[in-house]
Structures are given as structure tokens and as C-alpha cells.
Amino acid sequence: MMKPQRQCQRCGTCCRKGGPILHGEDLALVRRGIVSLPCLVTIRKGEPAFNPFREKVEPAAHEMIKIAGKGASWECLFYDSALFSCLIHAERPMECRLLQCWDTSAIKEVSGRDCLCRFDLIDSRDPIREQILSHEEKCPYGKAMLRLQSLSAPAPPAAALQDLTAIMRADLLLRAAMVEKLRLNLQQELFYFGRPLFQTLHHPRLRVTFSGETLHLALVPPA
Ligand code: SF4
């Protein structure tokens, strides 16, 4: 009979599934530059996100800051897949220290508690705070999700698609303005404004296209 697992086998599965969410205890890692802002991605309040404990995608109950992935993959930026090791092992974030894949009780205990948000990490005098607040006001996930859900109605109201288009365009416009004005690279943009809404909001009937830089949404007939 196989013995139950009691220690990490360094298989790398947890690091390949995605980096950790940062908590108050991890603030020092950012302050000391072990983890810099471009290594982070913001999950905005209401954004559809995978909940590993419920094993489903659901709107985030609050803002969260996560170690970014590698391009299109969620594999943690700090995971060295050739060596099966963590590049910041001695100073890894709290969730990584608590995670034991054979017993998830410790990490469940801290899940959703004392999570860092962008304003914990951005200087109180930094003018980008105003832009983040403006972005939240113009492009809220709550409103976008309601419009998205209404597309499931047998005859979706035309206003739903129009509103969704307006929100997604406003999101892209504000990002483009900030990228140009502040010379943000993609990783900085993903920390300050999270992922673009057109990449995170999905519906089986929704098609996204671009003409030049202008986003268009269309509803396709039900399958
Ligand atoms: S920070 Fe290190 S331990 Fe944590 S998920 Fe990334 S590679 Fe793995």
C-alpha cells in the first residue's frame, strides 16, 4: 500500500497552475524589491476568476494581486521549469509557504483574508491613483457582468450589447492613453489596470472583432 504524501515532491504542479495571491504579510517582499510591480497582475473586484477551492470561475469578491504568469500561460513567473524550482524560494509569498497539495487546510484558512490591493502598493502621492479610480468608475465589472448576463436572454436587449461595447472601448481607450502618457509596458499596465475586459468577459454568443484599434461586438445566433 502506498504511503500517504507528507512532503513536497517538487513536481511543480502548483507553480504551473498559477502564482499566489499576495496578502498583507507579503507587503515586505514588494517593498524590498523581491517582487516588483511588473511581476504582478491585478484581479479586479467582480472579474471572473478561477476559484481553486470551488473549482469554478466566479466573480472575484474583492480586488486581488497575483504573481503574473508567463505570456498566455498562468505558470508562475518565478517558476524555473528546467530546474523544477522557485527563483525566490527563500522569500516566496505566504500562500506558497502554506500550500501543501496533500493537505490544503492551511491555505484555505487564509484564502480571501487580508489580501493586498493596488493602493497598498502604490505611493499615496502617485497621480496614477486618480486614473485607476477613473477606470474603476468608467469600466466597472459589476455593470459589465450584468450586461453580459443579459445576453443569455432569449431576445437580448440591444442596449446590453451597446453598453458592453461602450465599457470595453472605454477600457481600451484609457489604457492606450496611459500607455502613451506614462510609457507603461504591458506588465505595468496589467498591474495598474488589470486585464482588458474584452479578454476576461466571455459569452458563447459574443464575438469580438477589431477594425484598426476599434473594438466591435456582435451576437451570433444560439448554437
Ligand atoms: S512564487 Fe515560487 S513557489 Fe510560489 S508559485 Fe511561484 S514559483 Fe511556485
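^ iron/sulfur cluster complex. The first helix runs from residue 13 to 17. The mean pLDDT is 94.
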